[in-house]
Amino acid sequence: MESAPQPGAMDALHEAGIRAAVALQAGPAWLEQFWLLLTSQLDPNAIYTVFFPLARGLGERVALLLLWSALLAEWLNVVLKWFLFGERPYWWIHESGLSSREQLPLRQFPVTCETGPGSPSGHCMILAAALWPVVTALSKEVSRCTRSRLLRLIPFLAYILLLVAMGLSRIFVLAHFPHQVVTGSLAGMALGWGLQRWPPNFLKCRFFLLTALGLLLGALGLHGLATAAGLDLDWSLRRAGSRCSEPGWLRPETRPWASLCRASGTALGLALAARCSLSRRAAEELRALEPPLGSAALGLLALDVLHKLPRSEGTALWYLNVGARYALGPVLVGSLMPQLILFLRRLRATP
Length: 351
Fold this sequence. Notes:
Elements: H1 9-25, H2 29-41, H3 44-55, H4 60-84, H5 89-95, H6 98-101, H7 122-145, H8 149-172, H9 178-197, H10 205-228, H11 235-243, H12 256-275, H13 280-289, H14 292-307, H15 315-349
Helix pairs in contact: 2-8, 3-4, 3-7, 3-14, 4-7, 4-9, 4-12, 7-8, 7-9, 8-9, 10-12, 12-15, 13-15, 14-15
């Protein structure tokens, strides 16, 4: 009598991840609401529309570093996902046959059905990279008030706890396996650390124009070469469509090309913001007049209005619309609004 085939190392790792998801979904209702709130409200889009304007309260350079880290992390995350061919729990349990061999008490949610491959986790990678300059700035602010090393570490401890919570929320909703959130978090931390050590000159318009063009053409080139070599980089879209329990949960903003449009659009926005930036004298005058928290609140409101505008229905126009919105973000928050505030302040001061 032949013995049943033994599962491979990856299958065993995936099955262990499914057991972790079962344990998390068996938790209390209040914890379920916490996981859902975390994974839906702190998605990559929130980095550009919430964290970016809020980071201006710590200084313009911190906010720009956050944006720069986020867009590069998002682009790199898509490329890694294309070539690592990572599974997602909500479809793997069916594709592997585990759901037919065992009755699993697992549920899907509206935020479950991500359409790209699963490895590494984009939520964790982008969050880890983007928040690194913010946490570093907060630690420096704390060090000005105290010599206690423990107190200076509090921002980093909060950062680690947030990443752990985000990882658990992604496992809970069946979007990722544990090893995917760990690799995503570590990759994001390494990228955030490196980009802070070697930041670009945010006043160089040409650099960011070339970056935007390079990111878009690079992604198109890699996708084209992989397709010519016989690799199917769009396999996850079909698998997501067949395994998502509700077709309405398949959101277009989770597609890899939406992420690439967001990253390229943001790089273009940094170029336009550099082109329209305030003079040094005007920037110093604005810092003397404008409370940092007021600037952050106004930027948050402006981006909220921008991203609530209706979108085009056609596929090509939809992607163009996404790129345009994220290109406008840095210009609006980093250039146009400060100029408007400075103009109104001067107008008010004129006798």
